[in-house]
Amino acid sequence: MDIFLQQLINGIVLGSIYSLVALGYTLVYGILGLINFAHGDIVMVGAMVTLTVVRLLSDSGLPGPLVLGIGMLTAIPACMAVGYLIERIAYRPLRNAPRLAPLITAIGVSILLQNLAMMIWGREYLSFPQILPTRTMAVGGASISAIQLLIVASSTIMMAGLSSLIRKTRLGNAMRATAQNPEVATLMGVNVNTIISITFVLGSALAAVAGMMVSAYYGIAHYDMGFILGLKAFTAAVLGGIGNIEGAMLGGLLLGIIESMGAGYLGTLTGGIMGSNYQDVFAFFVLILVLIFRPSGLLGERVGERP
Amino acid sequence: MTMLRPLLAAMAAMLLSSCAKQNPGSELVVRIGSVAPLTGPQSHLGKDNDNGVRLAADEINASGLVIGGKKMRVEVLSEDDQADPRTATIVAQKLVDEGVNGIVGHFNSGTSIPASRIYSDAGIPQISPSATATTYTGQGFETTFRVVTNDRQQGEALAKFALDTLHARTVAIIDDRTAYGQGIADEFEKDAKAGGAALVAHEFTSDHATDFTAILTSIKGKNPDLVFYGGMDAQAGPMMKQMRNLGMKMAFLGADGSKSPEFIKLAGTAAEGAYASAPGLPLDKMPGGKAFVQKFTAKYGKIQLYSPYSFDATMALVNAMKQAGSIDPARYLPVLARIKMDGVTGPISFDRKGDILHGAVTLYQVRNGSWTALP
Amino acid sequence: MKRYLKLAAYAALLLLLPFATGLALGKTWVRILDFALLYVMLALGLNIVVGFAGLLDLGYVAFFAVGAYCYALLASPHFGLHLPFWMILPIGAFSAGIFGMLLGAPTLRLRGDYLAIVTLGFGEIIRIFLNNLDTPYNITGGPQGIDLIDPVRLGPVSLNQPPGHAVYSYYFLFLLFALATAFVSTRLQHSRIGRAWAAIREDEIAAEAMGIDTRNLKLLAFAMGASFGGLSGGLFAGFEGFVSPESFTLTESIMILSMVVLGGMGHIRGVVFGALLLSILPEALRYVGPLEQSLFGKIVIDPSGLRMLLFGLSLILVMLLRPAGLWPSPARKRELLAHGETAKHENTNIYDAGR
Q1: C75-76 and C81-82 as β-strands: parallel, antiparallel, unpaired?
Q2: Do residue B36 and residue B93 come from a single domain?
Q3: Measured distance CA(C93)–CA(C89) in Å, rounded
């Protein structure tokens, strides 16, 4: 039973990471209708920047969590800048082009970011200095560490914050209006270009936090880490309902749990024919199933259509 | 009509440029091709291989090389095969076209195998410093050699260590589903089972993964005495860390892919006590070993993994040329096949297939933050 | 008369090209030419799906893999079968076509981005299965791949002999198939099917209203595109002599898509141009390293990282400046560069409206 519990905890933590990244994806898609393939790589940039700062400060004698906080505060503006630049230079001119063009451009941006990161930070896996407490707490036979709790907590907080932003603030109103119908929103006095930029910047800030969490949790960062993570997070967003904030959270958690449980139990279930070697296809299987049977996702709806 | 003229111009240019390609040198040059992934996730290991070849070349040139009565200079042609089989064949062809006299490479089994056909067709000897798949030398080519033990030899030694020295009765195996990881894991499994150990779990991951908590938790539930990992340091390090975080205290055994400074860096304090194997004998036990470590670290920094082997491979090629009195592959290949010399990794000679004869395997453990050889 | 002269000139050029290349630049470049021809076939195949029918496929390399493994399984010591290549190639193409339909069937109702992701997932699923189907029964050889594949044999003559000159023999074989592929593509484009695909691409609802069976035609697009990929895969396996899942990654799919998009989607000549450009240029960049060495005395920018960097940059630039591709057909150029309503026909739902 404690193994089951541990797998569940693993799944929830993994899922929270997916949720954090999925929030940014879903936000941008909800407003722009664009799958920002480069989002995962912005997460990577966040992780790398955090890592650089933490490495610089790790010998300074400051307490671990403070160093991490400083790292995060450096990463967020960095990612926001990157996100803003990408939107202005690569996506804005293509706003009226057929769907294929920004998709290809997004792939190009993703490749560009990865290779720039490789040139700046090198090709090796960079390790995170040990600055956080590694104590674990026992929960019914399973163990959970401080940073795992932090990840789960922060993704919930982010989701709640984002949700109330969308629903209760003027900015959120403007975002929803832009998502529903950009032309009419302009007529209503909304500066659509600014709103879109803000959306991107916000999504990138979320990505930065996600990047910091991921690199602190796993203890490593490298230029390659963004793409697959982004893809899985996108699957999570679609699972929950693309454009839907709560959906991103739910989708992420579900995906994390499915992957963990699958990896842990598939071998036993199939008598050894299929095992954890098929771990990576779970995400895609889930995606295909969802898109066939419930294409609007579990929670349906989009940012623009909430009352 | 639009395509014709530019095409004609291109062809004419190419034909003209071929006249300009003659490059008479004043010295006789021995060209050694060094192929490894110089970009991508394994590039730190690929560059390490390359550095080993270069160190050997520098040493040979400094000592004044004379082959067949003529003064020679060793020139290293480095190529990046990106660990991709298709690129590997292209760079192999490139090196063959450039008239290399010998090849040290490639790094991965998955690239060494397709490239070996091209070298074999051209009759150019190829010594791999790190490819361990048994099929590499099992293709029936005369030109394939390696200075590391293959998976079968290493797996045997690992299983023996696990069962006899660590007294493990139940084992769990994880491999990363690459040609290397799966190869060594399967050999280990075979030999461990033959030795009487029980396999409680065989889990899988990939060479890009960072999260192993699910498979580790599953293994934890089955409580083996030992966890074996077939794969590279970039995964082994975080895996070790996550293992200890989950409260799993059993022994961790890795193959040569784990025995690197990267592993210790990535696992942090959790690395302490981990075991791994490496082909050959410990560097400080071999004559010339200590000197090699000094010279290498002075020039290129820390030894990653296989640079001593690529160094030995280069030395083997040149020694064979010296003994045969010729740099012509057709002439020195038979000498290479029968060569007997001492490298920094151990005595070097090859069996009929090209595998290293009496290849030794040494076991190491992380003690006080570095890999220490076990007697 | 003039036309025949032109054709003869082209033919002579194509026949002499490998020898000229070999003389001037070495056999490496002939080998690169051989791969370029394989990519031309792949790009033409993907062009049917993306360019003709307008369906975005990001997992195309899976069909290449199916064709390659078919060949590997039927002509190697793995199962002990050694069928002749003219038997295996159609089998490979056909199997790939079946997989194409398998992919197409559940995705018929998806559009744009969603189709892209699903096809990407499909490509990855195929690769992972190929990597893991070695237990409990060794079907695909797993990560070790399948080695010692028979070379292509024309009667008693194996294309691998004489050793070292195989690249020339394979050039002519690939050229033949590439020309055939281009021919079939052109005929398809100007047939009823091709026009129906164009209609679906431009406005699916209107096409349905005109009585076009969009479902079956989309399936046909997937199947035909996939079979070209399978054909090319079989040739690849015979040429290389070794297949492993490492050759069939997502990056390859993206490469092939870029060839189609950069060259000029839907325009056969553009696609061929794109394929040749993108398979030869990265190899040319390999020489940047030594060039930098001789110009500056040291490596200023790492050439291998530069290659992918320039590639990503070029994708962005082409999309911003010439979204119809570097060599678009006049019709597509009008379509893609149109301002106003003509290009804004995309729905914001993942479904066609009303379904």
Answers
A1: antiparallel
A2: yes
A3: 6
Contact assignment for B217 to A10 by CB distance below 8 Å: yes
Mean pLDDT value of segment C237-251:
87
Query: Cβ A276–B245 below 8 Å, yes or no?
Result: no
**Residues B55-93: tens digit of each pLDDT:** 999 999 888 878 877 888 899 998 888 888 888 988 998
Q: What is the pLDDT of residues B290-309, one digit of tens each?
A: 888 889 999 988 888 889 99
Structure confidence at residue B15 (pLDDT) = 52
DSSP, collapsed to helix, strand or coil, labels residue B266 as helix
Residue numbers of the domain that contains A185 = 6-128+139-305
Q: What is the pLDDT of residue B252?
A: 94
How far CA C236 is from CA of C67, C130, C241, C245, in Å, comes to 9, 17, 8, 13
Indicate which of B113, B141, B199 best probes the interface with C, i.e. most C CBs within 10 Å of its own CB.
B113
Q: Cβ–Cβ of C13/B177 closer than 8 Å?
A: no
d(CA B317, CA C311): 38
Q: What is the pLDDT of residue A127?
A: 85
Q: How many domains does chain B have?
A: 2
Query: Phi and psi at residue B171, in whole multiples of 5°?
Result: -130, 150
pLDDT, one tens digit per residue, over A181-235 is 888 888 988 888 899 999 999 999 999 999 998 988 888 888 888 888 888 888 8
- Tell me which of B279, B313, B335 is where a domain ends: B279
Among B4, B15, B179, whose Cβ lies nearest the Cβ of C143? B179
Give the separation between CA A36 and CA C89, rounded to whole angstroms.
39
**Both tokens of residue A91?**
């996506």
List, edge to edge, every strand of the sheet that includes B126-128.
B65-67, B70-80, B28-36, B102-104, B126-128, B144-146
pTM for the whole structure: 0.85
CATH number at residue B330: 3.40.50.2300
For the ranges A126-130, A250-254, A275-279, A298-302, the maximum mean pLDDT occurs at A250-254
Residue C339 pLDDT > 60: no
Whether the per-residue pLDDT at B275 is higher than 60: the answer is yes
Domain end, chosen from B249, B279, B309, is at B279
Residues of A in contact with C128 (CB under 8 A): 277-278, 280-281
As a whole number, mean pLDDT of residues B279-294 equals: 82
pLDDT in tens, B201-213: 889 888 888 889 8
The boundaries of the domain holding residue B231 are 152-279
Q: Which domain CATH number covers A79?
A: 1.10.3470
Structure tokens at B102: 């010998």
Judge whether C16 and C168 are in contact, CB under 8 Å: no
pLDDT reading at B25 higher than 50? no
Point out the residue among A97, A119, A295 whose CB comes nearest to the CB of C351: A295
CB of C15 within 8 Å of any CB in chain B? no
The answer on pLDDT for A3 being more than 90 is no
- Give per-residue pLDDT as tens, A247-272: 889 999 999 998 888 888 877 777 66
Residue B368 within any structural domain of the chain: no
Q: How many domains does chain A have?
A: 1
Going from the C-alpha of A164 to that of each of A153, A160, A192, A299, C152, the distances in angstroms are: 17, 6, 21, 17, 65
Whether B186 is covered by a domain: the verdict is yes
Cβ atoms of residues A263 and B215 within 8 Å: yes
- The verdict on B145 and B292 lying in the same domain is yes
Q: Are B297 and B359 in contact (CB under 8 A)?
A: no
* Alpha-carbon gap, residue B62 to C96, rounded angstroms: 57
Q: Which two tokens stand for residue B13?
A: 């240019």
Question: To the nearest whole angstrom, how far is the Cα of C313 from the nearest Cα of chain A?
Answer: 6
Give the whole-angstrom CA distance, residue A274 versus residue C131. 12
Distance of alpha carbon B311 from alpha carbon C204, whole angstroms:
63
Of C26, C166, C241, the CB nearest to B114: C241
